[in-house]
Design goal:
single chain, alpha+beta, 4 helices, about 35% helix
Length: about 90
């Protein structure tokens, strides 16, 4: 599926947790399925990047394992099947 227009998006996300995020993103791309990285750890933001007041290592590790899948208002069964097939 090509990049999808904003008008087709739902106000929710389908999130997959994987230890091989970049591999999964590339695999999905090979099947023509768009995916995304929606969550960034707090330490990625300037305000927190230089701070050592709080240990954010668990957040950083978890954030690198999240991938979002397309969830569209008008997603066809064929498009759904493509996503499911690519994940399997």
């Amino acid at each position: 599926m090509p990049e999808f227009p904003t008008a087709r998006c739902r106000p929710l996300l389908a999130v997959v947790v994987t230890e091989r995020r970049d591999d999964l993103i590339n695999h999905l791309r090979d099947f023509g399925v768009g995916s995304g990285v929606q969550y960034q750890p707090l330490s990625a933001f300037t305000l927190f990047a230089q701070s050592d007041a709080v240990d954010l290592s668990a957040t950083e590790a978890f954030a690198t394992s999240l991938v979002t899948l397309p969830v569209l208002n008008d997603q066809t069964l064929e498009e759904q099947d493509t996503v499911v097939h690519a994940i399997r």
